[in-house]
Design brief:
It is a single chain. This protein is of the alpha/beta class and about 500 residues long. The protein is built from 13 helices and 14 strands. It has helices at about 30-40, 50-60, 65-70, 85-90, 140-145, 185-200, 240-245, 250-260, 275-305, 370-380, 395-400, 425, 475-495; strands at about 5-10, 40-45, 95-100, 130, 205-210, 315-320, 345-350, 360-365, 410-415, 435-440, 445-450, 455-460, 500, 510. Strand 11 (about 445-450) and strand 12 form a beta hairpin. Helix 6 packs parallel to helix 9 (about 275-305). About 50% of the residues are buried.
């Protein structure tokens, strides 16, 4: 009988958790469907932080943001934290990375002149880089220019539409200038296949990252025309931007650019005054980028089958964070709405013990911090006490909810000033009190701000989260209960690095 050995962790960028065919979405992703039929889909899976850097820090360290404290892109990750790569090395693996992690190094251990301090983030320590596109995408651009003589003088211009039909907005059905065979999705798939060809004679662990469906929402042919905008759902939003912005000062900041009618193409901005038809066009392109990723995943899956590794490999498909996609008049990943935090999660375990759960859907709340303990348990390795998550393998092995499983989900957002966003002065906060924390179950959602008014939503009556009832006396007792639950959660999961050790008359003791 074959023994389990390989791990393929697929991390796409900015993929909404509701955009999966097994959850009823019309997206055309036959290879992800193929994976889901082989595994378990977690329908209520959430990242613990946005944007990329914080979300990936939680994914790869297994820690809530309140513990790893890499709270924004550009904010360093403390060098003392372990991660899934370092832990896998203890089991004899050489963890390989295709893609990126958006990690800023610890300045106490890294010289201030290091080039990683001039970008949003570099690669997390512990990984063997086998397919990084470089700090400024230079490895990808070099790969393209060697093959495509029409490469623009400014490489980023390859993502512009061939014939802009709505110049200045994020909605276009025009194809990108770069041909599909030279897209960044193709680049990462090629790097993965190169690695797998060389690694197939030994146990391997590959983090396979894709940039898409991250903006710019401009797809190469034929993916740009794969979806009809008229078939795409309209955005969930208030009738006007002003009405939306009135809900909270933080939302007012992010929608301020809308009132000024500023637009963004490369994902640097977060809001855009788009018509419903423009949002639908944007979504059609977004789905096209997803289908492109799916096609290249098919190449990876086919290779694993052809080389006899399909039955030896644990495959996890997930994302770093999601995307507002026009809901609440917002673009990007930010704030406190679920659209930014609800992400996909599929776990396909090749072992016979998982045969009874194949193709099933779990609706319990799961979190991105559960990824690391799931992988480590599958590898037969101990889970560090610093890891806040819990393995998902019990769901995969038995289909039953483990005793004491969480009944709500938690996520955080830090909105301190950084070089491309300056919300502090608008909201009236400072560096250490520009943050929010969310606790959400199926009935209610509480949003606590360090130094701003709270929000409370009755999800049974207001699933779109338009009516803040935090000041309604009728909800007072319920609001207090959720406030207490959040406090208990934070007390339970605050840093535990050394709290399992204790001195005693017999010497040092250690508890799990």
């Amino acid at each position: 009988m074959k023994t389990r050995k390989n791990v393929l962790l697929i991390v796409v960028d900015q993929w909404r958790g509701d955009t999966l065919p097994m959850l009823g979405h019309p997206i055309k992703t036959p290879n992800i469907t193929r994976l889901a039929q082989r595994g378990v889909t977690f329908a209520n899976h959430y990242t613990q932080a946005v944007p990329c850097g914080p979300g990936r820090a939680s994914l790869l360290t297994g820690q809530y943001m309140m513990n790893h404290r890499a709270v924004q892109n550009t904010i360093p990750l403390d060098a003392r934290h372990t991660n899934v790569a370092w832990e896998a090395r203890k089991g004899g693996y050489e963890p390989a990375l295709v893609g990126y992690t958006t990690t800023t190094p610890d300045p106490r251990h890294t010289d201030a002149n290091d080039p990683r301090f001039r970008v949003l983030g570099g690669e997390m320590e512990g990984w063997k880089l086998v397919g990084s596109w470089g700090l400024k995408m230079e490895a990808y651009f070099a790969w393209v220019v060697r093959q495509w003589p029409d490469m623009p003088a400014t490489p980023e211009d390859m993502w512009l539409p061939q014939q802009p039909d709505r110049a200045g907005t994020d909605a276009t059905g025009e194809p990108s200038r770069v041909p599909a065979e030279f897209s960044d999705t193709a680049f990462f798939a090629e790097r993965a296949l190169e690695y797998l060809h060389g690694a197939r004679h030994k146990p391997w662990f590959l983090h396979l990252g894709f940039y898409r469906p991250h903006p710019p929402f401009i797809a190469p042919e034929p993916w740009n025309q794969m979806y009809d905008p008229s078939d795409c759902p309209a955005p969930l939003r208030a009738d006007t931007v002003e009405e939306e912005a009135a809900q909270h000062p933080l939302l007012g900041f992010y929608l301020e650019d809308v009132r000024k009618e500023r637009f963004f193409r490369h994902g640097k901005g977060v809001a855009s005054r788009m018509s419903v038809d423009e949002v639908k066009q944007m979504r059609a392109t977004y789905y096209g980028l997803m289908s492109e990723v799916d096609a290249h995943l098919g190449r990876i899956f086919d290779f694993l089958e052809e080389t006899g590794q399909w039955e030896d490999t644990l495959i996890i498909f997930t994302s770093d964070h999601a995307e507002q996609l026009g809901d609440h008049h917002l673009l990007g990943k930010l704030g406190y709405f679920d659209e930014s935090y609800h992400i996909p999660m599929i776990v396909a375990d090749p072992r016979k013990v998982a045969d009874g759960t194949r193709g099933t859907i779990v609706r319990e709340f799961t979190e991105t911090i559960d990824t690391m303990p799931t992988i480590l348990e599958w590898m037969g390795l101990p889970i560090p006490r610093t890891c806040d998550g819990h393995s998902l393998l019990p769901f995969v092995e038995t289909g039953a909810t483990p005793p004491g499983w969480r009944t709500e989900v938690h996520y955080e957002f830090d909105y301190r000033n950084i070089f491309y966003s300056q919300p502090e002065s608008f909201v009236g906060t400072g560096i250490d009190d520009s943050s929010l924390c969310v606790i959400r179950d199926h009935d209610y959602k509480y949003v606590h701000f360090t130094n701003a008014p709270p929000l409370f939503f009755d999800l049974r009556r207001d699933p779109g989260q338009f009516n803040n009832v935090a000041s309604d006396p009728a909800y007072g007792p319920t609001l207090l209960r959720y406030t207490q639950k959040m406090l208990s959660w934070r007390m339970r999961y605050m840093d535990r690095t050394l709290t399992g050790y204790a001195a005693s008359p017999e010497g040092l003791r250690k508890r799990a």
